[in-house]
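Recap from last week: sequence in, structure out.
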Amino acid sequence: MEFTYDGYLKLISLLKEKNYKFCDYLSCDEYDKPVIFRHDIDNSLNKALEIARLEYENNITSTFFVLLSTDFYNVFSKESNDILKEIMKLGHHIGLHFDEKRYEIPNAKELEYWVKRESDILGNAIDKEIKVVSMHRPSKWILENDIQFEGIINSYSKKFLSDFKYLSDSRMHWREDILGIIESEQYDKLHILTHSFWYSDENETINEKLVKFIDKAKIERYYSLKDNIRDLDEIINEGEF
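Predicted structure tokens:
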């Protein structure tokens, strides 16, 4: 499948055609053929918003997982906060994307402590209780143990990795033929992870997408400086880079 918005729409259309019901982690047991759409926001909230709008236009909802320990966005900045609240207004859910490598975590109890702490921080930022967590680059320990948290669903628990057919586009690569799997209707329960960062209007290589992202960062940093430095145009202007 192509990593374009048209390709993404074909994925949605095929799921609808095969009568899968789009749902979240809390409501999935209500359906005979549930599909959970999950998006890990590793680096760009703007790209996440584009996918959120596309899904809204096609009458589906999904769950967007927000990473607190990232250098790419800040959930407490007005721009980032406004984007997250717009995603919620479009009917989508927000979860915590948790990086266990951020801390020294010796056991499940300590893991739960930090997951709940970050969930509270994110929930306070967006005025919404966080009820589900996904792990950022999960370790073998996470993947091989059915770790449960009180009051927070772990998307890497046995239920969502074993009872559901789990499919992911990590590093812009589907390890299995997702369209063929959907077409076959071999699985009644699907758990699909996509990263909105990989999707665009045109079909591009991973190199092209990353280079564009790096180039765009210069413009974004310029306008951030402009909001904080008076008469920035007298020092530097946009045409210089």
